[in-house]
Structures are given as structure tokens and as C-alpha cells.
Amino acid sequence: MDIRYYPAVLYRSGRGVGVVFPDLDGCVSYGATDHAAAVQAEEAATAHVALMLKQGAVIPPPSHLDDVAADPDGEALGKVLIRIEVPCKWVRVNISMDERLLRRADTHARDLGMTRSGYLAEAVRRMAGV
């Protein structure tokens, strides 16, 4: 994983607090509070970047926080840096494991709303302390 810090602009919206990423076109997030918006922003940006990579898009480098313009309408609450884990190149693998263990992993992944690949990758991250 490559860790990057992308600037984000928080602004007041009808739904609470919105977040936009000047470097990640189309990536937006919302939260009821500033704190909730920042937490949601990290999840949204990480998922957005992962999808971009899967689609073969080039991930732009993060701008410097000082170079990000304030909202011209005066609605901005502030600017923050959001930590994003940028996955490396995705690689298809073929593994073997006990059939019952695989069924158990699939069931647990489904219960968590994850794919098999995502579940196994998370298990490796946790076991390896990555």
C-alpha cells in the first residue's frame, strides 16, 4: 500500500457537512458533523481510488494543502488532509485451501458485505500488521 494525504474541502450543506476532493474528480462525501464527514471522506476516497485503479485510470498526485483554493461562495468550513491507502497493482492469484475453510471465509465475507478477495486481503493485512 502507498499512503498519500489528499487535500479535501469541507463545506456546509443541507445534509450536514460535505467534502470534496479537488484532485479526485467526482469523489464527494457527507457527514452529519465535521468529524463524521472527515471519517466518511477517508472511506469514500479510498474506495474511489481503488475503483480508479481497477478501471486502469491514473491516480493523480495529491496537491499541497496550501495550493487548494477556498470555496468562492464562502461556504467552505475549512481544508483538511485525508489519509488514503492507495493499493498497488492488482494481481490475480490462484490459491488452494481446505474447502470447508473456503466456505467459511465466503460466508463471513458475505455477512460483512465483502468480496472473497477483499476478505482475504484484509485477513493478510491484519495478520501481517500492514
Summarize this, please?
This protein is of the alpha+beta class. The chain contains three helices and four strands, in the order βββαβαα.
Topology:
Elements: E1 2-13, E2 16-20, E3 28-31, H1 34-54, E4 76-86, H2 99-111, H3 116-128
Antiparallel strand pairs: 1-2, 1-4, 2-3
Q: What is the strand arrangement across the widest sheet?
A: 3-2-1-4
Strand content: 15-25%
Report the order of strands and helices: EEEHEHH
Largest sheet: 4 strands, antiparallel
Would you give an account of this structure?
By secondary structure, the protein is α+β, with helices and mostly antiparallel strands. The chain folds into two domains: 85 residues, Double Stranded RNA Binding Domain; 30 residues. Helices cover 36% and strands 25% of the residues. It is built from three helices and four strands, in the order E-E-E-H-E-H-H. A four-stranded antiparallel sheet has the order 3-2-1-4, covered by helices on one side. Helix 2 packs across helix 3. The longest helix is centred in the middle third of the chain and has 21 residues. The chain is elongated, with a radius of gyration of 18 Å. The model has no long low-confidence stretch (mean pLDDT 88).
Protein traits:
Double Stranded RNA Binding Domain; alpha+beta; single chain; about 130 residues; 3 helices; elongated; 2 domains
